[in-house]
């Protein structure tokens, strides 16, 4: 049989209450850390704002180009409307010229 050696550095055995208190402190510390992590996470609204900002930056050149194209198309539409009007005026003038030529007995040159 071995003799029991008492050492002043030997840890005293914890009671069940001390063990429960230690475990409770550890769990509370873990939950506090988890709560802190959750509190620092961005909210859905914050994430949505970040995404919107990124999209705005990425889409700005596209929107600018589309605006420019829209402006050019509007200008072109106005010009085409004027051309159609001119075409009608030219056709009307040619009809009048043909009527005058017929009245004067002038033959129209053959179309080339």
Notable features of this structure?
112 residues, mainly alpha, 77% helix
Characterization of this structure:
The protein has helices at 16-40, 44-104. The protein has 112 residues and is mainly α. The chain has a domain at 44-104. The longest helix is centred in the middle third of the chain and has 61 residues, at 44-104. The relative contact order is 0.03.
Quick recap of the structure?
The protein is mainly α. The chain has helices at 16-40, 44-104.
Structural class by SSE content: mainly alpha
Summarize the main sheet.
none
Low-confidence stretches: none
User: What is the terminal separation in angstroms?
Assistant: 132 Å
> Approximately how much beta-strand content do the residues carry?
under 5%
Helix count, per DSSP?
2
N-to-C order of helices and strands: HH
By DSSP, the count of extended strands is 0
Dominant shape: rod-shaped
Radius of gyration: 46 Å
Q: Percent of residues in helical segments? A: over 70%
Question: Overall mean pLDDT score?
Answer: 84
